[in-house]
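Researcher: I'm preparing a figure for a lab meeting and need a structural model of a single chain. I don't have an experimental structure, so a prediction will have to do for now. The sequence is pasted below. Please return the structure as tokens so I can convert it later.
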Amino acid sequence: MAKATVRELVQSSPRVTAQLNKLEGAAQRAHRLYLDHMQGCADCGYGRTQCTVAVGLWRTYTAARDGER
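Model: Understood. Here is the structure written out token by token.
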């Protein structure tokens, strides 16, 4: 039997996902949302261009990060 990855375990368990989300800080959530967006957005060229949504997500992340220091 193949071992499940942590990601697979988390995705298969809504309860675990909910608990991890509670533990995760605002900055980490915002950064994850930004990265997820950048990977899936056809208008964002990784590291080169960013759409307006990506710019807003980055600003949200930096504000949350700066607030947690």
